[in-house]
Design brief:
Pirin_C_dom, 25 strands, 2 domains, Pirin, mainly beta, Jelly Rolls, Pirin family protein, 8-stranded antiparallel β-sheet, 3 helices, 302 residues, globular
Length: 302
């Protein structure tokens, strides 16, 4: 375990606009990682894009050391990967890809220009799974935790008596909360948690939080009070504080500069034994950017 102090907090983190070359003329709002908050549990990356009428066209690209969680709020996305998976993802459904030592995938809009609003998240794999074999799973039906004023779709992990079938390699929680009134939900005291408001204005743990703001809640809470005067939607993330400091660069999550540099070299030299081929794209792929001139170092919590 980390030496993270076990106490509840209420720290506010703003999103930042980041251009995304794979989506035509589109930028994303990046919430994780933050300089002072590189992870929440094993969650190490969170982008939100849209709502925008656009055509998504992300050519094959590689990953190592992580799981990708694609969560569309509006629109449909076609996922293809080097494992042979070919799946159309719709709202309230989960595609979960475990990269292990290496996998490649693409994501395209199912149709032409469509209204698209989605979340892309990464989960850092623990050291004993990061170099394992890749895998893909699809979950079209996810469980819901319900209480007065709230219905929560449990994406991964467990909330109350609702447990997701998705594979997690560390104790983890991801849930999409739909609020119609004030509500209280149970939490694990040993987890750290954070909440991202997707829609509406919400009071979380006594703090007024507007859309696009991440409220980091720390550890030590056994319940969370949420308030709204109308309807609102909140993404709740949680997990045991992640024990490792991570090196994150491009689409890779590792623990050293050498690990990242080796993965980049293998992608650039078309190492199909490591990353495979994604059917339907011919030779089209996203090349790796050059490594920075400085040595990549792990991110540390401030």
């Amino acid at each position: 375990m980390t030496n993270l102090e076990e106490r509840p907090v209420a720290e506010r983190y703003e999103t930042r606009e980041v251009p995304l070359g794979g989506v035509r003329g589109m930028s994303v709002r990046r919430t994780l990682p933050q300089r002072a908050l590189p992870t929440v549990g094993a969650w190490c990356f969170l982008d939100q894009f849209g709502p925008q009428r656009t055509q998504m066209r992300v050519l094959p690209h590689p990953h190592i050391g992580l799981q990708t969680v694609t969560w569309p709020l509006t629109g449909e996305i076609r996922h293809r990967d080097s494992l042979g998976s070919d799946a159309v993802l719709r709202p309230s459904q989960l595609n979960l890809m475990t990269s292990g030592r290496g996998v490649a995938h693409s994501e395209f809009s199912l149709t032409g220009d469509q209204l698209l609003h989605a979340l892309q998240l990464w989960v850092a794999l623990p050291a004993d799974r990061a170099a394992g074999q890749p895998a893909f799973e699809r979950h079209p039906d996810l469980p819901a935790y319900e209480t007065k004023g709230l219905v929560a779709t449990v994406i991964i992990g467990a909330l109350g008596d609702a447990t997701s079938p998705a594979t997690a390699y560390t104790p983890l929680l991801g849930a999409d909360l739909a609020l119609t009134a004030s509500a209280t939900i149970p939490l694990r005291k040993d987890f750290e948690h954070a909440a991202l408001v997707l829609d509406g204005f919400v009071t979380i743990a006594g703090q007024s939080v507007e859309p696009g703001l991440l409220l980091y809640l720390g550890t030590g809470r056994d319940e969370l009070r949420l308030g709204t005067d109308g309807t609102a939607r909140v993404l709740l993330l949680g997990g045991e504080p992640f024990p490792d400091n991570l090196v994150m660069w491009w689409n890779f999550v590792g623990r050293s500069h050498q690990e990242i540099a080796a993965a980049r070299d293998d992608w650039e030299t078309h190492d199909h034994d490591r990353f495979g081929l994604v059917a339907g794209h011919g030779s089209d792929r996203i090349p790796a950017p050059p490594l920075p001139a400085v040595r990549l170092t792990p991110r540390h919590r401030a």
